[in-house]
Amino acid sequence: MLVEFEHYLDSLANRPVRLSKQGANSMVVEVADERFIARFTVWEDGSFVAEVINLETERFVLNERVECDDISQLKAGFGGFLEAMGRP
Predict the structure, then answer these.
(1) Under 8 Å CB-to-CB from 35, ≥6 apart: which residues?
(2) DSSP class per residue in 32-52
(3) Does the structure show a pLDDT above 70 at 31?
(4) So which domain of life are we looking at (predicted)?
(5) What pLDDT band is residue 23 in, cutting at 50, 70 and 90?
(6) Helix-strand-coil percent breakdown of the chain, rounded to 5?
(7) How far is CA 51 from CA 3, 11, 13, 63, in A?
């Protein structure tokens, strides 16, 4: 599922993220701007952890772990991750 998700990220126009692979079993997507620092970690089994921290309050806006059955759920989870930062 990692390869599919990586292709999905590549297809996004104006991708606002930095991607780093963590071996063959996981990848980390990082996003930072003036308001938030965020990390979306995905594992080969489709599970992910989404973390978004508000820099002003130093509190989590989003902190969740989800098990996905398919790529559409993973994409939806990533969409929610971006929405937590006010991104489309």
Answers:
(1) 54, 55, 56, 85, 86
(2) E-SSEEEEEEEETTS-EEEEE
(3) yes
(4) Bacteria
(5) confident
(6) 25, 40, 35
(7) 22, 23, 22, 5
Q: For residues 66 and 74, what is the distance between their CA atoms, to the nearest angstrom?
A: 9
Alpha-carbon separation of residue 28 from 17, 49, 56, 82 (angstroms): 10, 10, 23, 14
What's the number of CA atoms in the CB half-sphere (13 Å) around residue 43?
9
- The pTM of the full predicted model, rounded to 2 decimals, is 0.91
Residue with tokens 């006010």: 86
Q: Which residues contact 18 (CB under 8 A, 6 or more apart)?
A: 29, 30, 31
Calpha distance 34→43 (Å, rounded): 28
pLDDT at 66: 98
Contact by Cβ (8 Å): 81, 40: yes
* Cα–Cα–Cα angle for 40, 36, 45, rounded to 5 degrees: 5
